[in-house]
Amino acid sequence: MPITISTTRESSPPAIEAELATLHQRVAALPEAQRSVELRLPSMSSQILADAWLAIATGTAAANWPTTVVARGMRELGIDNQFVTSLPGLAALRTAEKIVPEGARDRALDTAHVLMQLVATDGGLVRTRSGGRVLVEVDPDFPIAPRLRASDRIASAPAERRRMFTQMVLHLRKMVEIGALRRQIDPVSEGPGGAVGRFLFELHENGVEHGSRDGQGKKIPGSRLLRVRKHIANRPEDLSSRHGGVPELRAYLERIHASALVEASISDFGLGIVDGFLASPSGASHAGRDRRGLLHSLLFERLSSKGVDPASGLGIQRALRAANQMQAFVSLRTAEFWLAASFVDAAPEIRMIDVGPEMQRGRVRGTHWQFLWPQP
């Protein structure tokens, strides 16, 4: 019997973390021939950040063991199904052994066919039932979304890809930013919002270069997802109640006192910031270092392996300064680490702190960023 993780739309990030904390030990306790995982997942989540954590769990399990994903409440699955276009559904498409509807487990989704359809439709920009959009890129099959390519066969030069990416982010912001919708004003690539857009580009390019490779530099199967969406409630108190048991997020929502937020998230399922650096030639001399201290250096001290993360320059610091100006909340989950920063009040010294140090946590696959900023 596989190790089963059963989640619902009410599952919180800490609850998902608790499952991940013991997953490796539970799977390892099985006879080798029986080591597998079954994930029972909802198509929607009620808590902020929860769907991102379901995607993290999915990508982590599927990268390590044969994994069956069961879409809860579904009798059939297809390209327009709300589960398939959810973050965990998209994370499962490339690496899960199979994806099946709960009501008809003999009808496994044709994942290869669905992936080709998703990448071909709107340049890889997938519409979700939550009202957001997700840019889907799949390694090694479709490493650059058509929206960011000069043609079907030729990848854009970096400068051209930056321009195309900037235009795409402006398009996505126009769809979700309440001020732009109310006033019919196009967002611009200047100021703090533009800075975060540029930082997302750095994260995207880093994922293309490093988040899709193993320790020997070879391409590995996986997906990269960039999602922009909004969270709306009738009252600020209603929005803050969706903190999902994350103390740092709860404090931010209560202080910011907003009824609407925009979330931009970007995920890859590669080796992660620390392990990707340690696997590089530059990282060999750092093998014995404390991993938490090494992560800090990669984020804030420009230590890099030619850009294992945007810490190869000052990208992280520039983005956090922009987040500071936007009164944003920033979350980073990679390997055994979960860091966050809240910018309700401007701070002269910008740092990210460990989220819930006492919280049970396992080691996850890849690198996962979330940015939340308030809307008027």
Question: Would you give an account of this structure?
Answer:
This protein has one domain (3-374). Helix 1 runs parallel beside helix 2 (50-64) and helix 5 (158-176) packs across helix 7 (191-209). Residues 307-313 have low confidence and may be disordered. The radius of gyration is 20 Å and the shape is globular. The chain is an alpha+beta fold and 376 residues long. The protein starts with a strand and ends with a strand. The protein is built from 12 helices and 12 strands.
Helix/strand class: alpha+beta
Estimated radius of gyration = 20 Å
Uncertain regions: pLDDT < 50 for 5+ in a row?
A: 307-313
Number of strands: 12
Global morphology: globular
Main sheet?
8 strands, antiparallel
Q: Whole-number average pLDDT? A: 87
Total helical segments: 12
Give the strand order, joined by hyphens, for the main sheet. Answer: 5-6-7-8-12-9-10-11
Q: How many structural domains?
A: 1
Helix content: 25-40%
Name the helix and strand elements from N-terminus to C-terminus, one letter apiece. EHEHEHEHEEHHHEHHEHHHEEEE
β-strand percent reads 15-25%
Determine the N-to-C terminus distance. 51 Å
Task: Offer a concise description of the structure.
The protein has 376 residues and is α+β, with helices and mostly antiparallel strands. It is built from twelve helices and twelve strands.
Keywords, please?
about 375 residues, alpha+beta, 8-stranded antiparallel β-sheet, 4-stranded parallel β-sheet, 12 strands
